[in-house]
Amino acid sequence: MYKPLRDRHTAWNWKALLARSMQTADQLQRLLGQSIPYLEQIIHRYPMRINEYYFRLIESEGDPIYRQCVPDPRELRQMPGTADPLAEEKHSPVAGLTHRYPDRVLFLISNECAVYCRFCNRKRKVGRKGIVTPDTIRDGIAYIRANRQLRDVLLSGGDPFLLETEELEEILAQLRAIPHVEIIRIGTRTPCTLPHRITPRLVRMISKYHPVYVNTHFNHPREITPEASQACSLLADAGIPIGCQTVLLKGVNDNRETMALLMQRLVKIRVRPYYLFQCDQVRGTSHFWTDPQKGVDIITSLLGHISGLCIPHYCIDLPGGGGKILHMPSYVERREETGLIVKNFEGKTYKYPIYE
User: Is the pLDDT of residue 6 over 90?
Assistant: First the structure.
């Protein structure tokens, strides 16, 4: 039923792979050889797309890849959370643009992804027509141009790399022509879910608009395939720094062993672990949620045992638009008059002297 990747070096065309994606209940259930309760109702509320490449990473029912892409009846039955937990709409001066922090904006330029992740914090938007239009893109660029305090623009969606190369270049060129825009970031999961999209032509185009940073998203070591490694190499060789924003997901990566291996493999393919995100409290995703202490425990278990280069910041994006906070282990037990009493990664106690 679940076949490993065959002929990994086949040069699949990304558009052909996308066109053959599973998007209906009949397509998925036929390939799985089983029925999923309420599948049509789930897909009607939260669209599904699983491309052939990512589907072939599934090894068994309920494994970490399956959980991320195959709809689950709990998406309808479990209703904790809200549709827009980060209050993006509240901070949207124009449609498709979120201005939450003083010097930067989140700018949606696509409403499609290569795979619709079941834990997505924009389940309310992705895969739906009319969310991103030529008008919203025009208005977003006009807003950025008019607000001189904006120095950093994060292009997101959906997935910006699902745009045609020419469409993406038009947006990059307009942003780069704005004098106060210093940094452009692109949030994309295609290096993981559709690495064939990262072509030499795409990379050459992006490199014309430096400084450009790419934030990608791997959640499990099995996602780091030869194709994904090649995609990241193309970006890195072009001088495009790559960071990874992993999401902590119950049943996918919520243990030390999986997380350590994932972070080590990311660094090996020149992707810097950036954030480990607590899963956002989006309605229909509560089966992925973990206790925040789980994230702290995992980071604690990694510190000192794998390279600091492999350690992400454990981050919680606060409900209601409160922004990001870091929730990291503390090794300081107390402060005394002459020094700090601390514990190291082995649990041993030391005194760090204070001189004034």
Answer: no
- The most distant pair of C-alpha atoms in the chain lies apart, rounded to whole Å, by 72
Residue 86 belongs to a domain: no
Active-site residues: which are they?
100-101, 104, 113, 117, 120, 122, 280, 317, 324
Compute the distance between CA of residue 111 and CA of residue 122 in angstroms, rounded to an integer: 10
Same domain, 238 and 269: yes
Phi first, then psi, for residue 126 (nearest 5°) are -65, 140
Q: Clarify whether residues 68 and 177 are in a common domain.
A: no
CB–CB of 238/206 below 8 Å? yes
Same domain? For 199 and 317 the reply is yes
Do residue 247 and residue 108 come from a single domain?
yes
337 assigned to some structural domain: no
- Classify residue 89: in a domain, yes or no: no
Task: State mean pLDDT over 189-204.
Answer: 97
Cβ-proximal residues to 275 (8 Å cutoff; 6+ apart), any chain: 243, 244, 245, 246, 312, 313, 314, 315
Domain contains 90: no
Task: Give me the pLDDT at residue 42, please.
Answer: 96
Residue 338 per-residue DSSP state:
T
pLDDT tens for each residue of 317-336:
998 888 898 998 888 899 99
Q: Which pTM does this prediction carry? A: 0.92
Label each residue of 179-213 as H, E or C: CCCCEEEEECCHHHHCHHHCCHHHHHHHHHHCCEE
pLDDT on residue 337? 86
pLDDT at res. 12: 67
pLDDT of the residue at 319: 86
